[in-house]
Amino acid sequence: MANTADRVSTRGRRRSGASSLAWSILSFLVVAAITFLGLITVTFFIGRVIPIDPVLAIVGDRAPASVVAAARKQYGFDLPLWDQYLLYLTKALKGDFGNSVLSTYPVMDDIRRVLPATLELATVGTIIGLLLGIPLGVLAAVKRDSLIDQIVRVIGLVGYSVPIFWLGLMGLLVFYARLGWVEGPGRIGVAYEYSFTPITGLFLVDAILQGDWDVFRDVFRHIILPGALLGYFSMAYISRMTRSFMLNELSQEYIVAARAKGLSETRVIWGHALRNAAVPLVTVIALSYATLLEGSVLTETVFAWPGIGSYLYNSLQNADMNAVLGGTIVIGALFIALNLLSDLLYRVLDPRTRT
């Protein structure tokens, strides 16, 4: 009888855990939908209050009044603001942000073309930030208030304080112009630009898939400097948060018990403390990656990187509001998705958050 009761109780707990996880996923989806709707709404009204006439951007400020009036009617700008919003919302939910004034192509086609470059750059930056930030954060926590801790904190403070465009210019001056260790602005050399055929849009991955190691080396020499700069910014954030999480874990009773059992310090730190600190680090890593995606405008501008940051900068310079609003919504949607995914992973990895 006791075994039967235990089995029933175990099944009940499993069902409760599964239903809790399902409810969490459903609530995340609802929050994501509401947040995305709010993002579209705010973006739309910002686009309407700024002192740029989207019709004049399309037809030109010297177009006859009849042409301007016809274009205003064609694109729905003669409708009441509420009707314009509903029309824009309907199209945006379908991925239709209109045509770009600069390229004349649909904005989503342009975004599909430039987004992989930003994803690749942000991914390289995040990997560098992880490989450096986590060990430095652990070391700073273990050596709390020591000279090593102070050095790590200063390195992180510099990463937050120094403008990234200045670091980019200095990096080009030193490592490209003076030392010649890396390639200059751009994503790929002129010698390979027209002979290389992308598959996924991620040039490093495409070069590996095609076995073209000359292109791989060229692309790597182009991406390593801007990727390292973004990685430095990411490392500053990840190391600071890792240090904070590790200090909290190292003060817990289970760490004292592990040391009392005679476990080695390496196992205590890396096998126990870091393992528990890794759960909240998931959120930190996801937010860091999302920040690099949305904050790479200056880096892409300095390095002439053909990503979505440069695309938005050029569009804003030319009053191409369809492209600006569409790119803003796509980046915001990625940020929302990464944020919600990190929260979901947090709940999956840490059962305590499901109660």
From TrEMBL:
Membrane topology: Multi-pass membrane protein
UniProt keyword annotation of Cell membrane present: yes
Top-level lineage group: Bacteria
Primary location class: membrane
Similarity comment: family membership: Belongs to the binding-protein-dependent transport system permease family.
GO cellular component, one term: plasma membrane
Record protein name field: ABC transporter permease
Annotated source species: Mesorhizobium denitrificans
